[in-house]
Amino acid sequence: MSTKKYIATPYRTREILQRYKFSFKKSLGQNFLVDVNILENIIHHAGITKQAGALEVGPGIGALTEQLAIHADRVVAFEIDQRLLPILDDTLDGYENITILHQDILEADVHQMINKYFEKEQPIHLVANLPYYITTPILMKLLRERLPVTSITVMIQKEVADRMAAKPNTKSYGSLSIAVQYYTQAEVVMHVPKSVFMPQPNVDSSVLRLTLRDEPPVSVENEDYFFSLVQACFAQRRKTLRNNLTSYFQDVYDKEMITRLLEEIGIDGSRRGESLDMQEFATLANRFYNEQR
Ligand code: SAM
């Protein structure tokens, strides 16, 4: 098939949109990709092979879905916008290995869908150009559910990708970095110009690849407690650890007690949250958790 026939070209996308009188819904984060090279690059970074299963969130008019169908064994895609279903039926006609599910990804039982639609395909990769308005809720849902997927490769807002992949002592490092890196190894693999989208978004985009870990890199006694405490340590970025923790534990511990617990685990209370690595956060959370039990 010559690339001219692919959905992901400005010409074909415009033609499909006109034929169906489709109007973009900004509230659903609809920015369609119109560049096959970018899609092939994403698929390459995702590590898609002919034996693989591909999960997609938000197929739109099928630009990425089509490329996934070409490179993977089977594709299952979740689309919330009912208006796109007849369009996808048409644009993806001829590909026998695609299932489109009319479901909100935030409500979907993704685990069950994987069991239902993928039989022999291995490994399973999630690949998507995500709706930017709910990038973080989608990714956190998928990670918390501990899906049997090997990697998640997503086009998202550059600033969010930077935060998810950030290392300690950088401007972007925060509780989101810890939350994502607890479950995955995170890497920004591509920066993408606005010109490859229709319509063009207001923000810059990057492709983030998350490789799921078999086990978390640190051992925590209580995950909810750990994540809340990490958030508390970043509550006011310019404040010291001691001060952020004093505000967080205001009815439980006074400053002296907090200083004593920090000293016990060898963490200087005058440091800022952004200087702690994941192991230090785990040690901190476990010490406070055990004190409160
Ligand atoms: N994959 C297409 C592409 O790259 O051209 C479209 C990507 S567009 C950025 C995001 C897509 O996600 C849209 O088709 C939108 O309707 C869909 N979407 C938005 N919210 C969703 C949700 N909660 N669940 C499933 N799909 C959603």
Total individual domains: 2
By secondary-structure content and strand pairing, the structural class works out as alpha/beta
Shape: elongated
State the strand order across the main sheet: 4-3-2-5-6-9-7
Contiguous helical run count: 12
Task: Specify the biggest β-sheet.
Answer: 7 strands, mixed
Question: What CATH architecture of the largest domain would you give?
Answer: 3-Layer(aba) Sandwich
Radius of gyration: 22 Å
**Helix and strand string, N-terminal first?**
HEHEHEHEHEHEHHEEEHHHH
Bound molecules: S-adenosylmethionine
From the N-terminal CA to the C-terminal CA, the straight-line distance is 64 Å
**Proportion of residues in extended strands:** 15-25%
CATH topology name of the largest domain: Rossmann fold
Q: Tell me the number of strands.
A: 9
Can you describe this structure?
- The protein is α/β, with parallel strands linked by helices.
- The protein folds into 2 domains: 210 residues, Vaccinia Virus protein VP39 (Rossmann fold); 70 residues, Helicase, Ruva Protein, domain 3, CATH 1.10.8.
- Helices cover 40% and strands 16% of the residues.
- It is built from 12 helices and 9 strands.
- It has a 7-stranded mixed sheet, with helices on both faces. Strands 1-8 form a two-stranded antiparallel sheet.
- Strand 5, helix 6 and strand 6 form a beta-alpha-beta unit.
- The protein is elongated and about 70 Å long.
- The mean pLDDT is 96.
- The site of S-adenosylmethionine has 22 residues, from strand 1 and helix 3.
